[in-house]
Amino acid sequence: MNRRIMGQRGMSLLELIIVMAIIGILAAVAVPLLKNAPRRAQEAALKQNLRVMRDAIEQHHADKGHYPPSLQALVEEEYLRTIPLDPITRSTDTWVEVFAEFPALSGEDPWAETDLSPFGDPGIEDVHSGAEESALNGEAYADW
Questions:
Q1: So what's the pLDDT on residue 122?
Q2: Of 4, 13, 21, 88, whose CB neighbour count within 10 A is largest?
Q3: Spacing of C-alpha 103 from chain mean position
């Protein structure tokens, strides 16, 4: 009787078990989301680096009328400060450069049997990651 008058202090065992169960459920939901956070950050950085390099390639093409011969040429001509790091492979040397194709000539190709081309070197038209892994969504990084 004395306890009811002064107000109940503390929690019952049942209340404590319910609170612990709720905390456990919230932790079970949060852990998988936090587990993939570093990978999601790497993927976001990769997308940003690809966007920056592709933009620099297009700016070079718009300014000069041809694609750059290499990623290093973009740095030398100050379209990029440095070649960005591929966050998946952690290297600047693993970028896969996609070279532009020459337009098809009408009729027979007189240049087909020689190494010469009337257009010069084709230059880099696109760039991809050299990572062999797949993203969290199942796509290959090389296809981005």
A1: 81
A2: 88
A3: 30
For the stretch 94-107, what's the b/e string if a residue is b when 16 or more beta carbons lie within 10 angstroms of its beta carbon?
A: ebebeebeeeeeee
Higher-confidence position of 44 and 111: 44
3-state secondary structure 23-69: HHHHHHHHHHHHHCHHHHHHHHHHHHHHHHHHHHHHHHHHHHCCCCC
Q: What is the C-alpha to C-alpha distance for residues 91 and 82, in angstroms, rounded to an integer?
A: 12
Tell which phi-psi region holds residue 65, choosing left (phi > 0), alpha (psi between -120 and 50) or beta: left
Tens-place pLDDT, residues 9-62: 777 889 999 999 999 999 999 888 888 899 999 999 999 999 999 999 999 999
Tell me how far the alpha carbon of residue 19 is from its chain's centroid: 40
Q: Which amino acid is at 98?
A: V
Full-model pTM? 0.69
The candidate with the shortest Cα–Cα distance to 124, out of 54, 47, 22, is 54
